[in-house]
Amino acid sequence: xxxxxxxxxxxxxxxxxxxxxxxxxxxxxxxxxxxxxxxxxxxxxxxxxxxxxxxxxxxxxxxxxxxxxxxxxxxxxxxxxxxxxxxxxxxxxxxxxxxxxxxxxxxxxxxxxxxxxxxxxxxxxxxxxxxxxxxxxxxxxxxxxxxxxxxxxxxxxxxxxxxxxxxxxxxxxxxxxxxxxxxxxxxxxxxxxxxxxxxxxxxxxxxxxxxxxxxxxxxxxxxxxxxxxxxxxxxxxxxxxxxxxxxxxxxxxxxxxxxxxxxxxxxxxxxxxxxxxxxxxxxxxxxxxxxxxxxxxxxxxxxxxxxxxxxx
Length: 312
Fold this sequence. Notes:
The structure is a single chain. By secondary structure, the chain is α/β, with parallel strands linked by helices. The chain has a domain at 50-214: Alpha/Beta hydrolase fold, catalytic domain (Rossmann fold, 3-Layer(aba) Sandwich). The chain is 56% helix and 15% strand. It has helices at residues 2-42, 65-76, 89-101, 115-128, 199-211, 224-264, 266-270, 274-281, 283-295, 298-311, and strands spanning 47-57, 80-85, 104-113, 136-140, 147-148, 154-159, 170-171, 178-183. The strands form 2 sheets. It has a 6-stranded parallel beta sheet, sandwiched between helices. Strands 5-7 form a two-stranded parallel sheet. Helix 3 packs parallel to helix 4.
């Protein structure tokens, strides 16, 4: 019995020595898998929501109603846009930064007028703290000589150097992008409260936004009902256009038939007879030739008579 106990104890010791290394190797792999799982939970999935245009009004939202008009035009064009007071730039930057941390990315475009133009650069500087780049800033008559930060790719500044308010924009430290200061005073006087309402500048701004990929996104996509209405209206318009084309086709066919009848009519057939008349008119010309040749021999007869008289 004691022998059996010793054998059992020896077997258990041997088993422990054989299994221990394998368990030691499994622990690191399990720990690695746990670490990877935790890391995947900490890193959210990246999702790009497209372009978002933030429009900043000026003082007390009184003189910057052009930003509201531009906001409407952008959304109608399928470009996601929202309009705010210039004093909200800090809160907007915080919201964008919070979404960025959660993996929600967007192409931030900032447009501002007057004080809103000044704070467009302040908002971009705040976004730089979150490591967020700003592909485009468009400003209308900024009132302070602001400078562009390193995280901005392009700036277009519409201003007037003669209206007493507008000013140009400078390059800040680390800025390597494109800067365009467009002085509109060369095109004629434009007021500080009118510059943001210019339809021409609105069209140019929309073009600049489209150049960086701004366009219709899922957030501005039409509902199925609206799409069906648009298709029906498009179909109706196409049917009307087709109906309008039918009378023109019938008229063209009738014209072609009439021209065919004219070609087959006796009047048309008599038209080529003119060359025959011309050919008939030629023989009299030939008949006149003998008359001319017949009168030629008369001269020698006269000369013969003269010679005979001389001989006599």
